[in-house]
Amino acid sequence: SQQGEEDPQALSIQEGENATMNCSYKTSINNLQWYRQNSGRGLVHLILIRSNEREKHSGRLRVTLDTSKKSSSLLITASRAADTASYFCATPGGDKIIFGKGTRLHILP
Amino acid sequence: DAMVIQNPRYQVTQFGKPVTLSCSQTLNHNVMYWYQQKSSQAPKLLFHYYDKDFNNEADTPDNFQSRRPNTSFCFLDIRSPGLGDAAMYLCATSRGPLDGETQYFGPGTRLLVL
């Protein structure tokens, strides 16, 4: 299966700290996406990084992609309470994308 | 604002009683997807439509059917819901079925089976 695997499964940090979560996958890809899901809601697209990009930024988000290691990381800087959510990486699978199991991030006040 | 809308947000049904979930979009996207998501799990793709072409995932139970009468609307029919079908059902859209196309999600319908 092409399903990515996020690590850690759950993460709790203090507000203001940085949060890092990782995604590993098995086969070559041409892009990788990250999504956020607040509790009881749909997923929201955060960022897409292509295989020819090593790093991409969007506001407080920084995503890296290492195709040689088949891994990606999502860094959220200066975390806020509103960042509490599950974060999923998604890899292409033909005419669809395949979501990993997610990292549950909890920001402590 | 362009968006994906799901109704109802919460649906309660009885074991074995057919239920229909609806999704509409104002994005004019070609592709619509239905996912099932159980607690603390990844969304699981049930099927998707590329325009009128229906694509069923191999492991989607026969109990689940879908209809797309036009570009804007897509329905998920569960013919005989079982207790194991209780989950969040997510509708999503994308412009095309290309590898890794960004998907836009609705807020989901939480289904409870009594």
CATH topology of chain B: Immunoglobulin-like
Range of strand content of chain A: over 45%
Round the mean pLDDT of chain A to the nearest integer and report it: 93
CATH architecture of chain B: Sandwich
Structural class, from helix and strand content of chain B? mainly beta
Indicate the CATH topology of chain A: Immunoglobulin-like
Tally of helical runs of chain A: 0
Major sheet size, sense and barrel closure of chain A: 6 strands, mixed
Distinct helical segment count of chain B = 0
Can you identify the CATH class of chain A? Mainly Beta
Index terms:
heterodimer; A: 109 residues; mainly beta; Immunoglobulin-like; six-stranded mixed sheet; B: 114 residues; seven-stranded mixed sheet; four-stranded antiparallel sheet; 11 strands
Descriptive overview:
The complex is a heterodimer of chains A (109) and B (114). Chain A is mostly beta strands. Chain A has one domain: Immunoglobulin-like (Sandwich). Chain A has strands spanning 5-7, 10-14, 19-24, 31-37, 43-50, 55-58, 61-66, 71-76, 85-92, 97-99, 103-108. In chain A, the strands form two sheets. In chain A, strands 2, 4, 5, 9, 10 and 11 form a six-stranded mixed sheet that branches. With 114 residues, chain B is mainly beta. Chain B has a single domain (4-106), classed as Immunoglobulin-like. Chain B has no helices and eleven strands. In chain B, strands 2, 4, 5, 6, 9, 10 and 11 form a seven-stranded mixed sheet that branches. The mean pLDDT of chain B is 93. The chains are: A mainly beta (109), B mainly beta (114). The A-B interface holds A 3, 29-33, 40-45, 48, 88, 90-92, 94-102, 104 and B 4, 6, 33, 40-43, 45, 48, 50, 55, 88, 90, 92, 97-108, 110.
